[in-house]
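We store sequence with structure; for instance:
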Amino acid sequence: MVGAGLGALASACAGCTAQSGPTCRLLLATGPEGGPYNAFGNALAQAVAASGSRLRIVPVSTAASVDNLRELEAGAVDLALAMADVAEDAALGREPFARPAASATALARVYVNYTHLLVPADGAVRSVPDLAGRPVAAGAAGSGVQVVAGRLLREAGLGEGRLPARERQLGLAESARALREGAVDALFWSGGVPTPALATLSREMPLRFLPLDGYVGPLRDRYGPVYSAVTIPSGAYGPAEPVGTLGVANYLLARADVPRDAARELLTVVFERWGDLLREVTAGARLEPRFAISTGRVPLHRGAVAYYRSVYG
């Protein structure tokens, strides 16, 4: 987790630019070690270092999206990765945030998460309503997985009432272990395809991936177009058939006070090295400018605006 003392470090870029002055150090809130945000953050740090830029990216392990937005707003970090629904919640001051995040701006929409809902193939659970009264691994506290899982369960009528699903706050590794050992009856995850930990789990036990595309419309009606219909392709996890599910974009965010030239320099590296950045996160993804600027209610950083105008007009 980000320590309280990192606030001083996060100001190390103040007053410097990518073209002149001392090294410009930016703290990037990622996610748990071994997770996709952490992998992306480490790859970005390496790509920036190899580019010869004066920028230096320092990845910081966190609980992920919700935690990242709070640390960004508090000034403990300069950059953050977050799921689009959580980022919009922060921008609007919607639960779990007490007030709108004034400091959060977007650099790019970088790739799409696929929502996974896994159950044992030989179990009784065949749809979301079947989870009533059952223990469910619903993401770590402070993660975007926890947000989307909670919304899906509430939309299915399982968030409260006589027989709600029994949500357990577990990270990905703990969730996979709990499903394997029978401590939970289902596992929620939001990430790239294939997610290595789930690919490993699918080789260790027969799994069923439950369809979630039927919830896309109701969630869009309630929360806006941050949600989309996507498909986990056949073969992504062994012989499993294609499964329609819920897609959520991921944003690379920056505090509004990150220097304009630093943000522009960072995006130059992101677009030059996007293949390397996404290789360990999600197979077959591309970073395209027409999608990268689509950050909904989260405004683009002034350096991002300058970059996109200079390159794409």
Observations:
- Residues 1-9 have pLDDT under 50 and may be disordered.
- The two ends are 40 Å apart (CA to CA).
